[in-house]
Specification:
9-stranded mixed β-sheet; 5-stranded mixed β-sheet; alpha+beta
């Protein structure tokens, strides 16, 4: 442990080689799932103008920003998420691109939160944004992409729940709540708080309060929508949102996506307007949400034309934690070959031979000038299955020795064949 002042900042993590391999594997699985649906990768800066993030992301995010003023006096922020940045990128660079526009990203995000297991101050998201289609098939595609990505990870136990903030918002609107009050109630709902005192304070009529609380407690299968419709009698806007949700579920069924309904999902970010969904993994405790997303509206907030948009983001750190907790280990890259120069005269040749071997298989060269016995003990400890011993006597015959560390068997190989060693070992 270094002196405390040189230690890692609170809420951040170091990623060691084994976990890094798992992360890269996960990123690969996500990339191929996203690309399978025609999404293309984009990257945005790590920091943005503060204004972009506070424009519509909500109070909750504002409290948790890493914002700062740079040497030029600009107010900047380390991005807390990637939806607002990707919408900015769209408005600045891609408004003329053909629609629908399918974009995906992998990147680190920063939120000044109280760190705990699964909740960090720097964490990684992988997500997609689908721009330009107002139809239910676009929303269902986004949900299907998230399900397909998760499928590829092989995570055994999770739950995908769909909600509709449009219903909650129209109840609140009917009760006289403006945008700001809606946001406060949605935020409290997202945190699982009792929203009645808040609504009373806002002067929202008792009947509306009852409807909102009743709707927000509805959870289950498709039948939940029929129950919701009963609650909503008389509120045409909310009823049409509920009907829209039924259409969406029909399309999801035809794609074989497994889901549940939870009309209490309110999401922590303020920009959602319609369908919302969250995925929870078993075994993570309080921070079990590994993915969140939905239909939102941001382009007009940033001064562009209103454009239908939906998307989601996975939290990669939490997903990896869930995989570990559920015993799903991603394949790890094994070390394969160690080349050991036996005798000081053979070092140059050993380096040359290592380069040849690397043409077909990863290999490392002994760097500590250890004697053969100690180098073999190192290979054993590291689980390296094969050692190539470069000895003077064999070299004179144009050969090296290949040792199988598992059986202890040794055989001679011709130097000119070593560039194909990987093919031989399979
Ligand atoms: P979000 O729900 O705030 O949504 O974050 C998405 C995911 O990031 C969460 O489900 C969680 O797994 C992970 N996450 C959030 N905060 C932390 C943290 N402090 N530590 C570790 N993981 C965390 C969004 O960010 C939206 N931009 C998603 C979206 C995309 N909506 C539409 N398009």
């Amino acid at each position: 442990m270094p002196n405390q002042k040189f230690a890692r900042p609170r809420g951040t993590r170091d990623v060691l080689p084994e976990e890094m391999e798992a992360r890269r594997w996960l990123e690969g699985a996500f990339r191929s799932a996203f690309e399978g649906y025609g999404y293309r990768e984009v990257q945005t800066p790590t920091f943005e103008h503060l204004e972009l993030v506070i424009a519509k992301s909500g109070e909750e995010i504002k409290k948790h920003l890493y914002d700062f003023t740079d040497k030029g006096g600009r107010e900047l922020v380390l991005r807390p998420e990637l939806t607002a940045p990707v919408m900015r990128l769209y408005l600045q660079e891609l408004t003329h691109a053909s629609k629908p526009l399918r974009l995906y990203y992998l990147g680190n995000c920063f939120r000044y939160e109280e760190p705990q297991s699964g909740r960090y101050r720097e964490f990684w998201q992988a997500g997609v944004e689908l721009i330009g289609s107002p139809f239910a098939e676009a929303e269902t595609e986004v949900i299907a992409v998230a399900a397909a990505a998760l499928e590829r990870t092989g995570l055994p136990a999770y739950e995908l729940l769909i909600g509709e903030v449009g219903i909650l918002r129209s109840i609140l609107r009917e009760g006289g709540a403006g945008e700001e009050d809606q946001a406060r109630v949605m935020n409290a709902l997202d945190k699982g708080e009792d929203v009645r005192p808040l609504m009373t304070e806002m002067g929202i009529p008792e009947e509306c309060q009852r409807t909102l609380v009743g709707i927000s407690r509805l959870e289950g299968g498709r039948e939940v929508i029929a129950e919701a419709k009963e609650f909503l009698a008389g509120n045409d806007e909310a009823l049409s949102k509920a009907a829209g949700q039924e259409e969406l579920l029909d399309l999801l069924d035809s794609q074989g996506v497994k889901y549940g309904i939870d009309l209490g999902i309110a999401r922590g970010l303020e920009y959602y307007t319609g369908m919302v969904f969250e995925i929870y993994a078993e075994g993570l405790g309080a921070q079990k949400q590994i993915c969140g997303g939905g239909t939102y509206s941001l382009t007009e907030v940033f001064g562009g034309a209103a454009t239908p948009t939906c998307g989601f983001a996975f939290g990669m750190d939490r997903l990896l934690l869930a995989m570990e907790k559920q015993g799903r280990t991603p394949p790890s890259k094994k070390k394969r070959i160690l080349v050991v120069p036996a005798g000081s005269e053979t070092l140059k040749k050993a380096l040359e031979i290592s380069a040849a071997i690397r043409k077909s298989i990863p290999c490392e060269t002994e760097l500590l000038r250890r004697k053969l016995k100690k180098a073999l003990a190192y290979a054993d400890r590291e689980g390296i299955p094969f050692v190539v011993i470069v000895g003077e006597d064999e070299l004179r015959k144009g050969c090296v020795v290949l040792r199988d560390m598992h059986s202890g068997e040794q055989r001679e190989l011709r130097v000119e064949e070593l560039d194909k060693l990987g093919l031989q070992l399979g």
